[in-house]
Amino acid sequence: MFRLSQWLISRVAVIYAIIFIFCLTCVDLKTLAMRVKTRHLNDAIPNFSDMIIFSKDQNARKDLDWRPYKNYFELILRYIPDDFITKQLLGFVDYYTGQEPQAIALFKSSSVMNGRLLFWSNYDLGVLYYKKSMWPQAAEYLLKAIRSNTQLTVFLMRDSLIYRQIAASPFFRYSLSDEIMDAQSKAYVLLLSSLCYMKQYDKVILISNLAIENPSLSYKDAFYFYAGLGFFETDQMEKAFLLFQKSLTIEKNNPEVYYYIANIYEKAGQLEQAREFLQISYGLHQKNDPRFPYESNTNLRFF
Question: What is the biggest distance separating any 2 CA atoms in the chain, rounded to whole angstroms?
């Protein structure tokens, strides 16, 4: 009986020893895997300075090497497939490396998080379709960008490891809140332009008024211009004239405003005033101010 007990105890001890060693091995393997993953990610972190410079001035770095960014973002998605921030950034890189279908797929898959619209993916989809003259699709995503919660987007950016790495660059001297508000203002401009191309002037008037009433938005002169254009195209010349004049009090160098005021004077039979404003419009056009038309030089962004 004593020998049987010893035999059972020894067998149980061996089993426990095996279980203990197995657990240790699993812990070690998990730890090792985590260390390998961390090392891979740390080794792949690119210098974000070129990407930052490109985002602010896309003529500054035409020879930009996108491979380090693409490799880094793809590596993160290999470990975290549903990372919305990384998908947005990889979509930006894919677009500028000529992989537009992949970019569109990434933007669409990162445009909504738990039922909430995310700004940058919807904005970039809107800009992308605008550049392709696909006005209904552009308007759809630009409207979603406008409706998105920009505070949520700023929170996600500040909470993101990648954006903290981007912000650590000496070339990053920007406020995320200011940049996203500037982009939202631009989204309104592109949305209004898209609606004009579709001749949906009632919506142009409505959305222009909403933009004018929003104190956080910039480009107020553009919103008054588009509101005036909406009334001009619906043959409400008095309202159009007042709105064009209001636009000029904010920005006096937009040649399009003078052109439409000249048209109003011509329709009213005031030909001398019409010629005067046409001459001003022509002179401003000759200056080739890159700010005009308002929707010019709009590119994809990630901050």
Answer: 123
The C-alpha atoms of residue 167 and residue 287 are separated, in whole angstroms, by 36
How many angstroms separate the CA atoms of 70 and 295, rounded? 29
Helices 176-197, 150-159: crossing angle, 10 deg rounding: 140
At 11, list the tokens: 């067998």
187 touches 289 (CB < 8 A): no
Residue 300: pLDDT above 90?
yes
Q: Mention every residue, 6+ apart, whose C-beta is less than 8 A from residue 200.
A: none
Using pLDDT thresholds of 50, 70 and 90, give the confidence band for residue 11: low
Report the amino acid identity of residue 146: I
b/e string for 288-298 if b means 16 or more Cβ within 10 A?
Answer: eeeebebbeeb
List the structure tokens of 271.
């030909």
The closest alpha carbon to 56, from 168, 178, 159, belongs to 178
Tokens of 3: 């020998």
All domains in the chain, ordered by first residue: 201-297 (1.25.40.10)
pTM equals 0.87
d(C-alpha 145, C-alpha 127), whole Å: 11
pLDDT at 142 over 50: yes
